[in-house]
Structure formats: C-alpha cells, structure tokens
Write a structure and sequence with these properties.
Layout: E1 5-8, H1 18-27, E2 33-39, E3 46-47, H2 50-59, E4 64-69, E5 87-91, H3 97-109, E6 113-118, E7 136-140, H4 155-168, E8 175-179, H5 186-193, E9 197-200, H6 211-222
Parallel strand pairs: 1-9, 2-4, 4-5, 5-6, 6-7, 7-8, 8-9
Antiparallel strand pairs: 2-3
Helix pairs in contact: 4-5
The protein binds D-xylitol-5-phosphate and zinc ion (ZN).
Length: about 220
C-alpha cells in the first residue's frame, strides 16, 4: 500500500497569509501543494494560473500538484513551469480522446508525474487503457469548480473499484488522489478504500482550527 500524502488546496488558503501558511506546511513536511487552475470554460469558475504556479515554485521546495481544469490543455501545459517531482493532472473529459496520450507524455517529458483526473460521473473503467502512461489518478469526489461542496455519493465505492483494477492489472504503484470534501470523517474511509494522496481544503486542515494541529490530526487519522 502506498504511503499517505497530504496536498492542501491553495485556493482555500488566505492569500494575505500565504507566506506564513507555506512556511507552516514546510515545517509540517507537507508532501504537495494542490493548485487548482480553472479557465471558466471547463468549469464555471476562474482560479489560479501560470504566474501563481511559477511564483510558488520559486518560493518553496514542496512539490506542486497542479490540477488543470482547462479545455484542451495540450498546448498550454508548458506555461505552468513544472519540473521533477511535481504532479500535473489533466482531465479525461477536457479534451479530444486522441490528445490525452500526448498530454500525459508531455508531462512526463517535463520530469513531472502524469495524473489523469476524472469527474464523479465518469466510469473509472475508461482509465484502464492509460495505466501504462500515468503515475496516478485524480479521482474527483465532488464536481470540480468550487471548494466547500459535499462528497458525491458512491465515491468510496469508486476508489475501491479503481484500486482493485490497478492492483489486479499489475499497477499497484499508481496513486489514487482524492479531491473534494476530504474531511476528518471521510479521509480514513477513503484511505481504507485505497486512496493515498489527499487534497485537503475547507473541509479539514484549511477550515477552522490551528493549521499545525489540523495537519497533525489528519496525519493521525490517515495512519
Ligand atoms: C477542486 C478543489 C476543491 C477544494 C478542496 O478541484 O481542489 O475540491 O479546494 O477542498 P474542500 O472540498 O474541502 O473545500
Ligand atoms: Zn483540485
């Protein structure tokens, strides 16, 4: 079983306290920084962008976890300035099918880990043909676009089904990252179902309470 990692969602972090928050993440050995990029087309919201990713990369050694919620990402990927150790996710739904593979290859060619993101209403079975080309799946547990939503019913079963598919096809090393409403109650259940990277936002560590205490609480729950 892959060890659990925490990827706080920076769209949920107060921009006026960002420097302090990043330092706290460093002190607490946070594994990734989840950056939601939204183009107002693939999802009905705008959020973070290329400059934000580049500035963040220059300011911290924590690897970035760039979640691209943009239409036709293929020719936009390089602009985010990612590198070795970072994660870049593109959505299965955001592009023509024949552009998915070139996208994943481009991410890997840039030294990053290629993840394929999938919305809650898409059968996980569609991912199977990409298993040799990906390092992880970003399994959405809410419909992307906004923080503060409730987990879509059936999400835990989807994690279980995907983990089984991966393990049985010889891809036990492929990560499952969960994104959306990862709270203190659901995170351990998601972990049990087979997730290993946890995007945490308003529902947990960037919600009420002290940051360090919240991170500690989440780590204890994830085991
Ligand atoms: C969507 C985002 C959100 C969110 C996570 O891609 O990543 O899911 O910020 O935090 P919650 O759901 O806890 O507000
Ligand atoms: Zn996200």
């Amino acid at each position: 079983m892959l060890k659990p990692s925490i990827s706080p969602s920076l769209m949920c972090a107060d921009i006026f306290s960002l420097r302090e928050i990043i330092r706290d993440f460093e002190k607490n050995s946070i594994e990734y920084l989840h950056i939601d990029v939204m183009d107002g087309e693939f999802v009905p919201n705008f959020c973070l962008g290329t400059d934000y990713c580049r500035r963040m990369k220059a300011q911290t050694d924590i690897p970035l976890d760039i979640h691209l919620m943009v239409i036709n990402p293929l020719n936009k990927i390089e602009a985010f300035g990612f590198g070795a150790g970072d994660i870049v996710s593109v959505h299965y739904e955001s592009q023509a099918k024949d552009e998915i593979l070139p996208c994943l290859k481009k991410i890997r060619a840039g030294g990053a880990k290629a993840f394929l993101a999938i919305n809650p209403d898409k059968p996980v079975e569609v991912l199977r043909e990409y298993f040799d080309e990906i390092d992880g799946v970003l399994l959405m547990t809410v419909f992307p676009g906004f923080a503060g939503q409730k987990m879509v019913e059936g999400s835990l079963e989807r994690i279980t089904a995907l983990r089984k598919m991966l393990d049985e096809s010889g891809h036990a090393d492929i990560s499952i990252e969960v994104d959306g409403n990862v709270n203190y109650e659901k995170a351990p259940l998601m972990r049990k179902a087979g997730a290993d990277i946890f995007v945490v936002g308003t529902s947990s560590i960037l919600g009420p309470g002290g940051l360090t205490e919240n991170i500690q609480k989440m780590r204890n729950l994830l085991g």
